[in-house]
Amino acid sequence: MEKIKYQLKENAGKVILPENLGFGLVFTDHMFEMDYDIKNGWHNPVIKPVHNLSLHPATMFIHYGQSIFEGLKAFKTVDDDIVMFRADEHIKRLNKSAKRMCIPEVDPEFVLNVLKELITIDKDWIPTKEGESLYIRPFMFGSDPILGVKPASQYKLIILLSPVGAYYPEGFKPVKILAQNDYVRTVRKGMGECKAPANYAASLLAGEEARKRGYTQVLWMDAIEQKYIEEVGTMNIFVRFKDEVATPKLTGSILPGVTRKSVIKLLNDWGEKISERLISINEVIDEYNKGNVLGIFGTGTAAVISSVGWLTYKDIDMTINNGEPGDLALKLFDEITGIQYGRKEDIYNWLTYVVKQGAEVL
Ligand SMILES: Cc1ncc(COP(=O)(O)O)c(C=O)c1O
After folding, report:
1. Is the CB of 300 inside a 6 Å radius of any atom of ligand 1?
2. Is the CB of 232 under 6 A from ligand 1?
3. Pairs from 111-116 (Cβ < 8 Å, separation ≥ 24)
4. What is the best residue among 204, 218, 236 to mutate for testing ligand 1's pocket, by most ligand atoms within 8 Å of CB?
């Protein structure tokens, strides 16, 4: 693989972050960009100032959506180290998504190194208030200027960095969810298990309708039988029944979340009975009526854990754990964020160090 070229911003100046960062509104000084074509493979890796792209209006992904992305985070720890959470898993998923969308895969070790270099260059942009982090957005897209439906022969990989605010600035608050079977997000054997923009586009209308009715997110059901719960908004879902914690098994329409994988590992190690299986909405309702649903929560990079306080399906309204976050959800949130911010020991080696004890780790 070619060496990374550096075209760093001159007079970058002191970084002044806004008081409220929000999500994906602020970008650091630099981005990574690399090209692919059939003759050269992936080539021309450059770290350069964030800039507008110049694309021909026929650029393939704009028309046919051949594009994928990832989302992961870097943190400034309590010891002033800089770490990424499970970067290797996110890079693995980037390549799995790429494969499904006929996009050429990238060398995982090279991309991990790029992330370390890029974050080191823009390290002053990592926010340090409670719950804040640096969101990392790698994405790939077909860039040939051709209006034919076929896999592109040219691609770009770009990585952006965005300092983001705390997901729970006012504390860990449960959300109100609408179980949805007017629309589906994805279907088995489709693209649900890859992080493709089209899946998010497919979710927008249902999300808007739910929001208009006062709900925060949609609980997606499987597209074939329309009865098995799959994901909540852009998170994986877990249901704490009386004798078991269950999460939908990965049937192909569900994104295999890195937080989901981490939660399963923790619950196993804590001695909980954890099952990956089909969970029908009727089972949730029946067990709720028997008083056996002790908690429901979503898992994802953005929120880590999001407690579901209220769930509606058709004309059935359920209040979960009196609308309070469950103790297991809180314990998981505390454990994972504890590891991310260096308050707890990283016994699973989930962290990739970018800066350790003041020294860059390259
Ligand atoms: C559709 C969807 N499901 C689940 C997740 C959670 O995945 P992860 O824990 O890897 O962030 C995300 C977010 O990335 C998502 O977009």
Report:
1. yes
2. no
3. 111/138, 111/157, 112/87, 112/88, 112/352, 113/362, 114/4, 114/32, 114/45, 114/47, 114/159, 115/84, 115/87, 115/159, 115/352, 115/354, 116/352, 116/354, 116/360, 116/361, 116/362
4. 236
Which residue's C-alpha comes closest to atom 6 of ligand 1? 300
Per-residue pLDDT of the chain (362 residues), as tens digits, is 899 999 999 988 899 999 999 999 999 999 999 999 999 999 999 999 999 999 999 999 999 999 999 999 999 999 999 999 999 999 999 999 999 999 999 999 999 999 999 999 999 999 999 899 999 999 999 999 999 999 999 999 999 999 999 887 777 889 999 998 899 999 999 999 999 999 999 999 999 999 999 999 999 999 999 999 999 999 999 999 999 999 999 999 999 999 999 999 999 999 999 999 999 999 999 999 999 999 999 999 999 999 999 999 999 999 999 999 999 999 999 999 999 999 999 999 999 999 998 888 87
pTM of the predicted structure, to 2 decimals: 0.97
